[in-house]
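Review form for a predicted model. The reviewer records the input and the model, then writes brief findings.
Reviewer: anonymous (R2)
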Amino acid sequence: MENLYYDIDLGRVPKHIAIIMDGNGRWAKSRMMPRTYGHKMGVETIRKVVKECSRLGVKYLTLYAFSTENWKRPADEVNALMSLLVSYLRKELAELHKNNVKILTIGDISKLPQACIDELNKSIDETKDNTGLVLSLALNYGSRADIKSAVTRIAKMVEEGKISIDDIDDEMISSSMSTRNIVDPDLVIRTSGEQRLSNFLLWEVAYSEFYFTDKHWPDFDEEALQEAIYNYQARDRRFGNVK
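Model under review:
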């Protein structure tokens, strides 16, 4: 395969990569530009990373696009993020569909503006039969809220007598969460130097590998993604076992 910056074993590429896209605002500030400009350039990075994941054979890519806490940001920034989401889907849907990408969401998208909901539903429906990369957008997503919803759903089934408490296991909890249609991440990447999960996939990352980079999200490119995968492949994943 051409354009490999690192000696990656294409037979051991992570099946699922999850990314906390951080640093758009700081990237823009360092260039004396508004935060919204950083978010706009961050969308360009999404395009690059989606294409590169497809090219390398990654099966699942989950992007932390908008958290339940992001509503606390200034209204103009939130509005800009929502507009960028709609713009991205409208511009990229045909290309994503052509490249066999399947679009999913995790999180409560019912709280998003109607224009976002409409574009998301259209994108999900149009790509539902695709068999390539599964691109999951985490929107109005918070892992604690997702876990709470799963617990509530299971508790209701117990209350209605549909299951007993003894029936509850890891598989049932996983299947009750919004991530039920994707496998647990092999690799979690966070850009911009921060080293925390920020309420992202807390249940699912129990055995994930973590990779932190000082690069702000707009500077994260194909080479940076390959570097993260190369670093991942050098690790010995034991899943709690002794080897």
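Findings: Residues 59 and 133 are 5 Å apart (CA to CA).
Further findings: The chain has seven helices and six strands.
Recommendation: see findings above.
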